Amino acid sequence: MRLATVRADDGTEIPVAVTADHGTVPVSDLLDDPPTNTMELLEPATWQLLEQRLGRRSGSGGAREDGAEFTAPYRHPRKVWGIGLNYVDHASDLSEIVPEEPASFMKGDHTIIGPGDPIPLPPQSDRVTAEAELGLVIGSYCRNVGEDAALDHVAGLTPVLDQTAEDILARNPRFLTRSKNFPGFLSFGPHIVPVSQVAGADGRLGDVEVATVIDGQVQRSNTVARMRYSPEFLVSFHSRVMPLYPGDIILTGTPGAVPLRAGMLAECRISGLPTLRNPVVNSA
């Protein structure tokens, strides 16, 4: 089972469960007191209850996935951590030294868009790049955890496109927050997929491949094994900085950034996950 959000005919956003057997099923068909926000479904007990209720259904119910319009899984996480220069090869591309600790930054929820939504290029920047990334969605409260238990606190994985106004950042590294926080600079979805559906036989994510794709052509790709700091380490490290809560997202870094211009189609392709696609437009 995967979690997602779809847009109804009246424009409202509805939490759904997605399975191969049942298609896209509104959570309101499964829970007696359903939340209106998919973020409220991430804790393990709620996820397990949904799976149990789905297991009791016979046949297929709800709208089929191919007819659903997926949106961002949710709009207002408490926090989003981004990680810069986490792929060794990407750092060398930029003539940067891989930092001795994760190069973290934060993004506001005003940056969030979903699948199919346009990425607007702000007039303040002449060089905006898209970066495909593997997103870790926190599912349970997490504070001071070790790497061995870190993925137990991850509800699932999701594709991400993280945008940067690179020309602003190039003027001064202290401008990182500004360069990362224009509206539309964070797309994620369409699904939140359990780690167990993507991980290898060893329970780890090293073989997962992440690719930045423009207009159908792979521009840069790499595997999680080439990260300087593994997903487990990133969860553990940031849980020692501050508490992580259900819905918090950790962006694990990109194998490569690609400059954007209006008319392009940017994609994040990750093995084992559905593809995230967003058209690129000039800001109105």
TrEMBL record:
Organism taxonomic ancestry: Bacteria, Bacillati, Actinomycetota, Actinomycetes, Streptosporangiales
Signal peptide positions (record): none
The name this protein goes by in its record: Fumarylacetoacetate hydrolase family protein
Family: Belongs to the FAH family.
Keyword line: Hydrolase, Metal-binding
Domain Fumarylacetoacetase-like C-terminal: from-to ranges: 79-281
PANTHER family associated with the record: FUMARYLACETOACETATE HYDROLASE DOMAIN-CONTAINING PROTEIN 2A (PTHR42796:SF4), FUMARYLACETOACETATE HYDROLASE DOMAIN-CONTAINING PROTEIN 2A-RELATED (PTHR42796)
GO molecular function (one): hydrolase activity
Gene3D superfamilies tied to this protein: Fumarylacetoacetase-like, C-terminal domain
GO-annotated biological processes: small molecule metabolic process
Entry-linked SUPFAM superfamilies: FAH
InterPro entries documented for this protein: FAH, Fumarylacetoacetase-like_C, Fumarylacetoacetase_C_sf
